[in-house]
Design goal:
Layout (H helix, E strand, L loop, with lengths): L2 E2 L2 E2 H25 L1 H33 L6 H11 L1 H23 L6 H34 L2 H8 L4
Antiparallel strand pairs: 1-2
Length: 162
């Protein structure tokens, strides 16, 4: 992947992952703890998890292309390494979404799950959701540092504006 209208594809795709992964994580947690939300949101959450899982390696590949076309710095390396881990978090969201969809399907079929299964479902959703949100933050923060470094804080400290 290279560019679209002169912008690196990674810069465009990353915004989808940055929005969809945390949104999916929040919906996943909501579906796990609130049966009414689960009834309405389980299928859209599963679709969002699948879309996020598909977009993650495409975004990562575009980022690797971009890495080969910018100066190699420690910040770029850190961002690339962190970005490569995002697929595991996306897969975790997808797996947890499948678990919740199975629980929902059983509930609809009048086969309620026990408390132990509900507790496992909530724990898995919380783990996957919170970990994903934290990792998206870490990756985004490292990407910001790779692009902007300390330019903003240096400008703010000196009172210069552009």
């Amino acid at each position: 992947m290279s560019t679209i209208n002169g912008l690196p594809v990674h810069v465009l795709l990353v915004h989808f992952v940055v929005v969809l992964a945390p949104l999916t994580a929040v919906l996943l947690i909501l579906c796990s703890v609130w049966p009414a939300a689960r009834r309405r949101l389980v299928w859209p959450t599963l679709v969002l998890a699948a879309v996020t899982t598909v977009l993650t390696p495409i975004t990562t590949e575009a980022g690797e292309w971009l890495e080969r076309h910018v100066d190699r710095t420690a910040a770029v390396h850190t961002h690339t390494e962190l970005g490569a881990t995002m697929i595991y978090f996306s897969i975790g969201l997808l797996a947890a979404s499948v678990v919740i969809a199975v629980v929902h399907y059983r509930e609809v079929r009048s086969r309620p799950v026990g408390r132990a299964m509900t507790a496992v479902m909530v724990a898995v959703a919380l783990l996957a959701g919170v970990a994903t949100i934290a990792q998206v933050y870490r990756i985004g923060e490292s990407g910001s540092r790779a692009v902007w470094g300390d330019q903003i804080s240096a400008t703010a400290a000196t009172g210069n504006s552009r």
